[in-house]
Structure to design on (210 residues):
């Protein structure tokens, strides 16, 4: 099954991707994580992406389409994959279609902007492996230390409140039109993000089964 997770920054796409990954045993592909890794490694496209990411803007379509294409060509994707954070623009969605990638379902995780602003201020990310946590909703076992790899968890630069406002604006302008795009293809299902993560997860699994 090839799935897309759609939703505003901080709507909980990454967490839902983990749930689906466990249930269906297909990998999650997060362009955000891949870009952050590239920035950290100082690769050529990492350097190009950094300024846009820090400002809450999107990285250019040709860069992300390039990384995505290489990633889904890998062996572990042959039984399906979950795209978390891609596509984020109509041209990216068109590029997927042009590659001949069959998408089965697009799951939109809907959370209101005000809730998102509150949530992102509590988000922490691991410096080592990139895992995401939340001080209230998904705390690490030891404060400030990643459960998975033991490295430090920090506030993402683009989770600063001023940048969050820009990211939400970018989402509404550039990414939200994808709802229409996939709804026209009959693939869009919307899950309303719940206060309890486990409740959202139930709804997500139901949405991809149904
Ligand atoms: P979010 O929590 O905002 O969903 P991500 O981790 O998915 O964040 O992405 C972080 C940043 O990486 C984005 O704000 C954007 O700059 C860049 N990025 C990630 N995926 C894409 C994409 N498909 N197209 C353009 N930029 C992207
Ligand atoms: Zn870690």
């Amino acid at each position: 099954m090839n799935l897309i997770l759609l939703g505003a920054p901080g709507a909980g796409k990454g967490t839902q991707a983990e749930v689906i990954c466990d249930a269906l045993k297909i990998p999650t592909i997060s362009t955000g994580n891949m870009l952050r890794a590239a920035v950290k490694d100082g690769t050529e496209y990492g350097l190009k992406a950094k300024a846009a990411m820090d400002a809450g803007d999107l990285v250019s379509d040709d860069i992300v389409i390039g990384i995505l294409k290489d990633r889904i060509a890998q062996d572990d994707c042959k039984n399906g994959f979950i795209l978390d954070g891609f596509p984020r623009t109509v041209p990216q969605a068109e590029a997927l279609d042009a590659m001949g990638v069959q998408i089965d379902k697009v799951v939109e995780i809907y959370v209101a902007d005000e809730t998102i602003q509150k949530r992102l201020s509590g988000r922490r990310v691991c410096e080592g492996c990139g895992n995401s946590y939340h001080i209230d909703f998904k705390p690490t076992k030891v404060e400030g230390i990643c459960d998975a790899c033991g490295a430090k968890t920090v506030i993402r630069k683009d989770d600063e409140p001023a940048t969050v406002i820009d990211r939400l604006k970018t989402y509404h302008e550039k990414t939200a039109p994808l709802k229409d795009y996939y709804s026209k293809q009959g693939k869009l299902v919307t899950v309303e993000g719940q206060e309890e993560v486990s409740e959202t997860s139930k709804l997500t699994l139901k949405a991809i089964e149904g």
Observations:
- The first strand starts at residue 2 and ends at 6.
- The first helix runs from residue 13 to 24.
- Strands lie at 2-6, 28-30, 81-84, 105-110, 123-126, 132-134, 153-154, 188-192.
